[in-house]
Write a structure and sequence with these properties.
By secondary structure, this protein is of the alpha+beta class. It has helices spanning about 10-30, 45-55, 65-75, 85-100, 105-130, 135-215, 220-245, 265-275, 295-315, 355-365, 395-400, and strands spanning about 280-285, 320-330, 335-340, 370-375, 385-395. It folds into two domains: about 10-165, no CATH class; about 260-400, Heat Shock Protein 90, CATH 3.30.565. Helix 1 packs antiparallel against helix 2 and helix 6 (about 135-215) runs antiparallel to helix 7.
């Protein structure tokens, strides 16, 4: 590793110049830290001063090298009459080494200087055997340990603020990705339903109308008209629902697979990984009877999306604690309930527009269901949760009759 990097930071140049000029002023006034040391001429105190002044130029760009040079300069200063500015610059180099140095240095310097301060204090007391010897340890702590701890505290605050900013960006990105994924899934579902459901009804109508026109039989015509009427009603119901969904804006995207309630385990597993840093736990309670009748495709998708949007809102807004997803079914109704901790949440939050609740309500009402969202107090918990509850029709006939 090179001793110094070129181009010192302008603020470091200003600090170095002011510090050296202050040291020169103290020296010219004869203000020394250890005037009784007359083994060397008084001018020799300027050598450590200028050396550590040069090191100050690189306190930010090469903190480890600057601290090494500064340590040598402070030791050399002990053999001269001494200069207070030299000590001040050394404390600044110690602080800068923790703030701008490698993470390993930032972790080790406070510990190393703390141990050094204790060692100096014990040796001084053992050697001098006077209460004043403790002051040597105090001065050592002020010069070494104090700046290192101050720098570590500032660095920890900066890293925490940066981590909070990154979490906020990631949460916003997750919400945006979920919004786009929902749009893509809706368009893919509509394309599949147009082909598999509406087109199927129209094909049946075309086949039976052709048969009615080709075979001159009252019984055949009556049977064909019955099939045509049934498929017309079902096709009209599907078209009304699809027209409602088409009113939602979305970008042109490639079709993707339609999600279902079978994918809730994977959805919550992903949410657990994302919300672990925020203290969130996701629990799925599926009380639907095994081997029951399959849900209509629109209901399956709407229920999945309601859970997905609620989980996303919990990741953005919920306080630390368990997020419970409950799925229950009777013969005619499917109940979806999501309880998330309600209260103040530490750290930064991602912004929200309220469009998620509007979308969930529209999905539920589109199928003729009931939707509610707001604070609730479950019995036996003694706390408040944000509860999202949707009751959807679980029978194909109920959906088609809309």
């Amino acid at each position: 590793m090179t001793l110094f990097r070129p181009h010192p930071h302008p603020h470091d140049v200003l600090i170095a110049v002011i510090s050296v000029l202050s040291g020169l002023l103290l020296w010219s006034l004869g203000l020394y830290t250890t005037a009784f040391r007359d083994l060397l001429p008084a001018w020799t105190a300027l050598v450590p001063l200028f050396v550590i002044g040069v090191a100050e130029l690189f306190r930010r760009t090469a903190p480890q090298s600057a601290l090494a040079v500064g340590t040598a300069a402070v030791i050399a200063d002990q053999f001269t009459v001494g200069n207070l500015a030299t000590f001040f610059m050394f404390t600044d180099l110690m602080y800068a080494a923790v703030v701008y140095g490698h993470p390993a240095m930032a972790r080790r310097l406070p510990i190393a200087t703390g141990v050094f301060t204790i060692a100096v204090t014990l040796v001084s007391v053992a050697w001098l055997r006077t209460p004043e010897a403790v002051l040597i340890g105090v001065v050592t702590g002020i010069v070494c340990f104090g700046p290192a701890v101050t720098g570590a505290t500032l660095r920890n605050h900066r890293e925490a603020a940066e981590a909070a900013r990154l979490r906020a960006e990631q949460t916003a990105l997750l919400a945006e990705m979920d919004r786009k994924a929902a749009i893509v899934a809706e368009r893919a579902r509509m394309a599949r339903e147009l082909h598999d459901m509406v087109a199927n009804h129209l094909s049946a109508i075309a086949i039976h109308s052709t048969a009615a026109l080709s075979i001159d039989s009252a019984e055949t015509s009556r049977e064909a008209l019955g099939v045509i009427r049934e498929n017309s009603v079902q096709g009209l119901s599907e078209m009304r629902r699809l027209i409602g969904l088409l009113r939602q804006s979305g970008a042109e995207q490639e079709p993707v697979a339609v999600p279902s309630l079978d994918g809730l385990a994977a959805l919550l597993a992903q949410a657990r990984a994302t919300g672990a840093a925020s203290g969130l736990e996701f629990v799925l309670e599926d009380t639907r009877p095994a081997g029951g009748e399959p849900l209509p495709a629109p209901v399956e998708l709407a229920a999945y999306r309601i859970v997905q949007e609620s989980v996303t809102n919990a990741l953005k807004h919920a306080a630390p604690g368990p997020v419970r997803v409950l799925i229950g079914r009777t013969d005619a109704l499917l109940t979806v309930r999501i309880d998330s901790p309600y209260g103040d949440r530490p750290g930064p939050r991602a912004p929200g527009s309220g469009a998620g609740l509007v979308g969930m309500r529209e999905r539920t009402e589109l199928l003729g269901g009931e939707f509610a969202a707001g604070p609730a107090e479950p019995a036996g918990t003694g706390g408040t949760v944000w509860r999202v509850r949707a009751v959807l029709p679980a029978e194909e006939k109920a959906v088609e009759a809309w």
